[in-house]
Design a protein that fits this description.
The protein is mainly alpha-helical and 156 residues long. It has four helices and no strands. Helix 2 (66-88) packs antiparallel against helix 4.
């Protein structure tokens, strides 16, 4: 028969395991909530892309000349070259681990750090300049993607 000390140790071990399990459930729930929020944020973009693709699909006849199909393919490749880098380039794109969660427009997430800095410091000024560059890069990419999508819809 186990002693009273063994029973107390076993009780502590079970409680500790319960705490760990509860913490793991909370972390999983938090990750799920963040993933759901990202999906909600991406819905308008996905809806617009679906509209463009449906419009293209309704305009392209499978018996159409290969030149027309190749033009559409080139247009879609151009769109992806413009938009995909916005989703993952916050650092070196060749060392990025795709399994890690990334916030939308990762380069603009530095704005959160800006509030923690002293407005008179050099770090604040450098961070602000980097954010302005990233904003300009994002706006340019979105403008270019809009014109590429318009060109694609006009040609097909």
């Amino acid at each position: 028969m186990p002693s009273l000390l063994d029973i107390r140790r076993r009780i502590r071990a079970v409680k500790s395991t319960q705490q760990i399990t509860k913490a793991m459930k909370m972390v999983a729930a938090s990750r799920l909530r963040r993933a759901q929020e990202r999906i909600q944020q991406a819905r308008p973009f996905a809806t617009e892309m679906l509209r463009v693709l449906n419009s293209l699909a309704s305009r392209v006849d499978p018996s159409a000349p290969t030149g027309q199909i190749e033009a559409i393919n080139r247009g879609l490749m151009r769109l992806s070259r413009l938009l995909v880098p916005l989703g993952y380039t916050s650092g070196d794109r060749f060392t990025h681990d795709l399994a890690l969660p990334i916030p939308p427009l990762a380069g603009l997430q530095r704005a959160r750090e800006l509030t923690k800095l002293d407005p008179d410091s050099d770090d604040y000024k450098f961070a602000r300049a980097a954010l302005v560059r990233e904003r300009n890069r994002s706006v340019h990419a979105f403008d270019s993607a809009i014109s590429a999508a318009d060109d694609l819809l006009e040609r097909s």
